[in-house]
Amino acid sequence: MVLKDWLARITGFEKRNDSADPSWAALAPGIGYMAGVSARAAENLSTVLACTNAIATALAYVPALVYRVDSDGNRVEAMSHPLRRIARGGANPQMTWPDWLEHLVASALLTGNGLAEIIRAGNGQLSGFRWIPWGMVTVVYLSSGRLAYDVTDGRGGTRRLLESEVLHLRDRTDDGLVGRSRLSRAADTVAGVQASNAFAKSFLERGAQPSGVIRHPGAMTLEQKASLREQFNSNYSGAANAGKTLILDGGLEWQAAQISPEDAELLESRKFGVVEVCRLFQVPPPIVQAYENNTFTNASQAGLWFATFCLAPWARKIEAEFARSVFPSNGPYELELDLSGFLRGDPATRWQAHEIALRNNVLDANEVRQIEGWNPRKAEPAGVRSPPPANQGEQSHV
C-alpha cells in the first residue's frame, strides 16, 4: 500500500474505484426479492400493490417542513433553506417532490432499499435528488468500513457513489447495512396468496366450471381419446365457451366432478390472503378497500391506526436518513413530515381539543388557525373595536 492510500484510509476517505474491494453483487439485485419472484411480479398481487401505493402516496402527500433548531431547542421553520424549495419546486427537472418520494418509499417497501443520489451545486449547496432503481445498484463494502454504491446506466457503464453522496432508505436489515424486504421475509405467505390467485385465474379460464369425466361404454383407441380431448377443449373449455350446450353421441356420457369453488374455500382463502398481506405492511384492511367485517367505528379509527403504526415509523426513518446524509453533522436543520392531518381525528374531537388548549393557554387563536390551515387574524388598531354581530343578544330557539 502506497503512502497516499494509507493516509487516505486512516483519515476516512474512500476511493471511488478500487478493484480490490469485495463486492456484494448478490445482495443488491436479489435480497429485496421474495423466493423466485421479483418485486415487480409481486405487485401483480392487488393487495401488495394497494398497500405499497397507500403508504408511499400518503408519505409523498404530507407537507415536508424544514426547521432550524436554535441552541435552546426552539424550532423555527427555515423558509429560505434549499430543501424547502426542492419540496415545493421538484426533486429534479423530471420529478416533483411527491413523485420522487413515492418512488423512494415504494422501492424500500418492495425491495427493502430505496436509493437516491444527492445532487449538489458547484458550491456544495443542495440542489436536488435523483431516484435510482435498486435493481441497478451493486453494494460495495470498502476497506474503510463504509459502503459504496456502483450504479449501472443500462448501457454497460458504471459509476460509483459514496455513502455521503446518497440517501439510502432501508427496511429492517439482517446485517445493519443493506435492507431486506418484508416480502422476502414472508416468502411462503406471499407465495400462498399468489397460488390462490393463480388457482382462481385458472378456474375462470376454464369457464368457471369444475372438470368432469366423459364415460364411454366400450374401449377407445389412443387416437379416439386424443381427438375427443382436442374437440372438447376447443369447443367447451374456457371462459368464452361457458354455458354452451354439451352434445355427446356414440354412447358417451358426461359426469361432472362433485366439487365446487365453495367446497375448495376459494373465496375465503383469497379474503384471508388480503389480510395476510395487509399484516405484512401494517396497513389496516379498510385502507385498501377490504371492508369485510367492517363497521363505522373501526373504519373511523383505521386512518388513525394507519398513521400511528404504519406511516409514523416510515416518516421517522426518512427524517433520520435526511439528518444523516443531507444535513451537515450536528447541524441546526431538520426535516419533518407533517402527519398532523392524519392524526387530527374527526372535526368534533379536533375542535374540542382546540377549546381545551385555548382555555388552558396552551395555544392562542392564531395558533389554532394555523393548525387548521388558516391565515392569522389581523390585529385591530388600538382603541378600535369591531361592531358586535347583528343578532348579538338574541336567543335562538331550536
Automatic annotation (TrEMBL):
Domain of life: Bacteria
Region (Disordered): 374-398
One Pfam family from the record: Phage_portal
NCBIfam families: portal_HK97
Protein name: Phage portal protein
Lineage: Bacteria, Pseudomonadati, Pseudomonadota, Alphaproteobacteria, Sphingomonadales
